Amino acid sequence: MSKEKQRREALVYHAKPQPGKIKIVPTKPYSTQRDLALAYSPGVAEPCLEIAKNKENVYKYTSKGNLVAIISNGTAVLGLGNIGPEASKPVMEGKGLLFKIFADIDGIDIEVDTEDVDKFIETVKMIAPTFGGINLEDIKAPEAFEIERRLKEELDIPVMHDDQHGTAIISAAAFLNALELAKKKIEDVTIVVSGAGAAAVSCTKLYKAFGARAENIVMLDSKGVIRKDAENLSEAKKEFATDRKIDTLEEAMVGADVFIGLSIADIVTPEMLLSMADNPIVFAMANPNPEINYDLAIKTRKDIIMATGRSDHPNQVNNVLGFPFIFRGALDVRATGINEEMKMAAVKALARLTKQPVPEQVNIAYGETRLTFGRDYIIPKPFDQRLIHEIPPAVAKAAMDSGVARAPIEDWDKYREELMLRSGNDNKVVRLLHSRARSNPKKIVFAEADHLDVLKAAQIVYEEGIAEPILLGRKDIILELKKELEFDADIPIVDPLSDEFDERHIRYATKYWESRKRKGTTLYSAKIKMRERNYFGAMMVLEGDADGMISGYSRAYPTVVKPILEVIGRATGVKRVATVNIMITERGPLFLADTSINIDPNAEELADITQMTANVATTFGFDPVIALLSYANFGSSPHQNAIKVREAVRILHQSNQDLVVDGEIQMDFALNKELHESKFPFSKLAGRKVNTLVFPNLESANITYKMLKELNKADSIGPIMVGLRKSVHIMQLGASVEEIVNMTAVAVIDAQEREKRKQAKITK
Ligand SMILES: NC(=O)C1=CN([C@@H]2O[C@H](COP(=O)(O)OP(=O)(O)OC[C@H]3O[C@@H](n4cnc5c(N)ncnc54)[C@H](OP(=O)(O)O)[C@@H]3O)[C@@H](O)[C@H]2O)C=CC1
Ligand SMILES: CC(=O)C(=O)O
Ligand SMILES: [Mg+2]
To answer: Which residues bind NADP(+) (predicted)?
Structure first.
């Protein structure tokens, strides 16, 4: 994507549909007069009085314990410099978003309009009673050092300047791992640090704590190498001033083992890299642009171990890996501060985690086949679910061991389980879906490309590398809409009504007629049919001119299903097709079936649908835990509808003993783990979190998914068609651009899976 396009996209992202990235949502009921009397006057007086009696009760009755202030004065915003408090707000809101999605912490951004250290400290102290923790952000050095030191001394809640310690923790973990790969010892390596600000000083101090030697370090600020013979050095810079009689970065880099960049973009040249020692470790962490471009660095030195602060390259060394999890651990034991022991514990936990086998979901999320500890993987990825499981407990334990925890954890298993639940509601399925599609994009026909939303979706998938679209529809309209969308990429356009495609028309019509000539189709009617987009598009897929197709945006579902079934038909050995919807809910993703095709399946059909749904869940990286739903529980009703579901479960238990499936079961027992376990301890689902729901008939499935979608505002992916001979998927009438994009990713993944199976057969 061009820089200009990226700029525009970033601005639209922040402006629409409502300005900003954060909003506040109530956590208590508020619909009745009774609710309001509790939420506000008179009921609210009771917790006020309890807190007045004992301040600690504020943690019991308010959101303080999970609320972190992200405070900046805008004096060192990323590597953009002193751009002021208002201009820092998008970054602070961004940190709030990351606190929420990674660690379920409510982060509120506060921008303070002062560069005066005393006034800043006073302001933070005065608002501190509101918060469980204070994350100081993007405040320039040397003021940042004094601000943090004094606030830590004067407040009894965790205070951390993230640019100092978050960065130090993450980079130290990556550094220790990189040294291991380079087979070098921290005591021996020579280190060049570009930058002498908040981040650089704190990182270098931590490396010293891990054994780096002062005489091996050269630090530079905006004026060049910081030398002992310089005048007016700040205390922080004095600690790292060198005896060496050198002045420039170029001189410092000769023979160096390590470069740490926490300064500004593009100050390191390929020549400087070439002058470094063997297996150089280069962490160019300035944001948004590193001290040297990643690709240039990799091209320059094959033996480099390279990291940046950016998410678009391997080895993202960015404090996003730290602050959500460090604060989570500190808040959960109500620590009075974040001390050295807690930081060290976080470093070790991060370094250790990198060397553990990487879960498949992380590979899928990043479009990798097999991430393993090595030059391109020296630090975990931010979307690694294990971070929330591993880092906060390590931090919490260190807080307890070092005596700063006011609410020690007693049951670690329960704590870990709570941590897992905290990460359940983000939209990782969508992420998985897109990354997986991007790993091997396929040619997808957009059968209704002459509709603005469909074309917009095609543009997004093209630009994001999710698919190679083929635009099917009226050519003149598509060209006009493309202009409107500034979609100038050269993409194939196929107009079934145009003469250009006569050869294909005849070929497709003949093929279609051959397969249906004994079912009343004439060659003439076949030719007429090929002028219809769904017949033509489906034939493109059948004939291998495309890998998949999506349609259904502008017509009712049954009208689109008919041609698809006629042309594509069922896969070999499959008795019926069905559809699955993935609902992104607060409790995590739920796979629902059959939402669109089989009106009243019998027991055997229900068993088939269940098995196909389980396969879909597995494809997306989830272990299916399946409830077969009914209005009754395990034999409680003699009615044939309940018996049908019971029989389907029996068939499944017999045919696939590894499948985690049970029923018949009511919805509340299926979704409520505790309820389920207490009443039906014998069930295969007892003690497990159900993620797949198979309904007894189409009505119940379809009504449920639409209700979830509308009332809960749950995002839905699907309906995903299963059982067809090719990757063809039909959206619901009027699907949104986002839904079309997701469906395209589904079609791509489906095509990838088919290709894999085909190749596996050939190699057999
Ligand atoms: N990847 C990550 O997780 C993180 C990255 N960072 C990045 O680190 C950088 C610094 O942030 P922070 O420490 O908070 O900011 P500060 O303002 O505290 O420090 C900036 C430092 O960079 C120095 N500097 C400026 N120009 C040059 C130059 N040409 N050569 C060498 N040093 C130079 C300044 O020198 P002087 O002292 O003379 O003014 C100062 O010491 C930013 O780019 C930021 O995005 C920060 C935190 C986390
Ligand atoms: C990542 C970060 O905090 C910074 O660049 O300032
Ligand atoms: Mg920062």
So the answer is: 77-84
CA-nearest of 406, 410, 361 to 387 is 361
Strand positions, DSSP E, 696-761:
715-722, 727-730
* Number of Cβ atoms within 10 Å of the Cβ of 417: 12
Looking at residue 178, its amino acid is A
Which CATH superfamily includes the segment(s) 578-723? Isocitrate/Isopropylmalate dehydrogenase-like (3.40.50.10750)
Q: List the residue whose alpha carbon is closest to atom 25 of ligand 1.
A: 222
pLDDT tens-digit profile of 643-690?
999 999 999 999 999 999 999 999 999 999 989 999 999 999 998 999
Q: Which two tokens stand for residue 493?
A: 């356009």
Tens of pLDDT, residues 553-586: 998 888 899 899 999 999 988 888 999 999 988 7
Task: Give the span between the Cα atoms of 170 and 172, in whole angstroms.
Answer: 5
Residue 507's contacts (CB-CB under 8 Å, 6 or more residues apart) are: 543
Cβ–Cβ under 8 Å, residues 414 and 357? no
The values of phi and psi at residue 468, to 5°, are -105, 100
Q: Distance between alpha carbon 522 and the CA centroid of its chain, in Å?
A: 52
CATH number assigned to the domain with residue range 432-567, chosen from the 4 options 1.10.520.20, 3.30.70.360, 3.40.50.10950, 3.30.1250.10: 3.40.50.10950
The CB of 320 under 6 Å from ligand 1? The reply is no
Q: Which of 64, 89, 95, 529 is catalytic?
A: 95
Decide: helix, strand or coil at residue 665. Answer: strand
* 159-215 tens-digit pLDDT: 999 999 999 999 999 999 999 999 999 999 999 999 999 999 999 999 999 999 999
Nearest residue to 153 (alpha-carbon basis) of 389, 384, 337, 419: 337
Q: Rounded to an integer, what distance in angstroms lies between the CA atom of residue 179 and that of residue 181?
A: 5
Q: For the chain, what are the domain ranges?
A: 3-157, 171-321, 432-567, 578-723
> Which pair of structure tokens corresponds to residue 113?
């309009």
For the CA of 220, the nearest atom of ligand 1: 31
Average pLDDT over residues 404-409: 97
CATH architecture, range 171-321: 3-Layer(aba) Sandwich (3.40)
The residues near 10 (Cβ < 8 Å, ≥ 6 apart) are none
Of ligand 1's listed atoms, the one at least distance from the Cα of 320 is: 3
Q: Tell me what pLDDT residue 425 has.
A: 44
Ligand 2 environment, Cβ below 6 A: 78, 138, 162-163, 287, 309, 318-319
Instruction: Tell me if domain 3-157 and domain 432-567 are identical in fold.
Output: yes
Q: Residue 76 C-alpha to ligand 1 middle, in angstroms?
A: 8
Give the homologous superfamily in CATH for domain 3-157: Malic enzyme, N-terminal domain (3.40.50.10380)
Which uninterrupted H or E stretch holds 182?
helix 162-182
641, 651 Cβ separation under 8 angstroms: no
598 within 8 A of 696, measured Cβ to Cβ: no
**DSSP-assigned letters across all residues of 249-275:** HHHHHTT-SEEEE-S-TT---HHHHHT
SS3 assignment for 148-168:
HHHHHHHCCCCEEEHHHHHHH
